[in-house]
Amino acid sequence: MTHSATTEPRRARRGASNGGRRKPQGGKRRWGRIVLLSVLVLLLAAGGVGYWLYSDLDDNIKGVDIDKAIGDDRPRKLPTSGQNILILGSDSRAGANASLHTGNVSGARSDTALVMHIPEGRTKAVAVSIPRDTLVTRPDCTKTDGTEVASAKRVMFNSIYSQVGPACVVKTVEQISGVRMDHYVEIDFAGFKGLVDAIGGVDVTVDQDIHDSSSGLDLSAGPHRLDGTQALQFVRTRHGIGDGSDLGRIGLQQQFMIALLSEIKKQDLLGSPTKTYKIADELTAALTTDSDLASLSKLAEFGRSLNGVDPSTMETIMLPVAYDKVDPNRVVAAEPQATQLWKAIRSDAAIPESAKKSPATGG
Q: CA-CA distance, 78 to 245, in Å (whole number)?
């Protein structure tokens, strides 16, 4: 079944944070892993619970009709069987997020955004992260209430979600990349907190003390087992290390995603239907997808098509950016690297090394 994104879900809507920039640190294996992890857990849950439990999970998922909202003003689909998925981590300040050190910004923003490209054959994947402080041209869009919003230049990327809605984020990404998004998946950060708590925490080791009053994170150097609240603080923190910008925070997010997948792998989900259901419940309650994926059965079917993808081989690349000449607190797409990157994805080709280098380092 398809559920409206404006319909009040079974649980409080959940979200994430917003902030500045920091150092990219290699750009490998980031948030795209969470989608593959979600698919795995959903498949396990779909095969191991009764119909009434299945129905309960199904009702968790919220849907957005992206095709209807955008219309025909879109790039053409890939001539291959490759897939492109826009993944957003949202950061609503309402409901369950009010106590998660999200700050005093009203509304919701897209804290994390990446384009996950799965080439034809579906045995590998690459994810392109878009720094949220990137200045872009927002195209003409229509809000969910039908209000028309005119195009605007030099708009900060992560503000589009709150100003116009998820369909406009999809349209913006398609306009700047020339890549058509086959699917849209949104995961809010409060739901992410529930996932970490459901698996009993995640182990990380930090190389230096981290004290960040903005995120609330306070860790000494060394090993730690993070609960859900600490995990959120960990992936959000930016003021406690580096130059306090968003680019360098990517490194911590990469580290945590690897640790999260390792923890999931260690746990015997097939041998524990109760835990499998609990994790699936947390994940589905945190998900908003395009209407074509907005049910457990559709997610499971799509997940089966990705069975050949090994998350450990997935590469995550930050969109090459340069500091804006007018506002050094913002970045813009770096050329010719960005054009080279998007062209490779459009043509299902290998991404050249030159397209992976970003002039803005956040160091």
A: 35
Q: What is the 3-state secondary structure (H, E, C) of 74-139?
A: CCCCCCCCCEEEEEEEECCCCHHHHHCCCCCCCCCCEEEEEEEEECCCCCCCEEEECCCCEEEEEC
Which residue did the predictor score with more confidence, 248 or 345? 345
Q: Would you say 214 and 330 are in contact if contact means Cβ atoms under 8 Å apart? A: no
The alpha carbon of 269 is separated from its chain's Cα centroid by a whole number of angstroms, namely 24
Count Cβ atoms below 10 Å from residue 346 Cβ, excluding itself. 18
* Stretch among 70-79, 102-111, 206-215, 333-342 having the lowest mean pLDDT: 102-111
Under DSSP, the state recorded for 293 is T
d(CA 283, CA 28): 23
Distances from the Cα of 231 to the Cαs of 87, 122, 192, 235, 331, in angstroms?
19, 30, 9, 6, 27
Q: How many CA atoms lie within 13 A of 264 on its CB side?
A: 21
What's the residue count for the chain? Answer: 363
User: Cα 338 from chain centroid?
Assistant: 20
Nearest in space to 26 (alpha carbons), one of 206, 241, 344, 251 = 251
DSSP letter for 353, please: G
Neighbour count for residue 208 (Cβ, 10 Å): 10
Reply yes or no on whether the pLDDT at 93 is more than 80.
no
Helix (H) or strand (E) holding 167: helix 166-177
Of 218, 258, 215, 222, nearest in space to 236 by CA:
215
* Residue 147 near residue 54 (C-beta atoms within 8 A): no
d(CA 47, CA 68): 32
Higher pLDDT, 257 or 315: 315
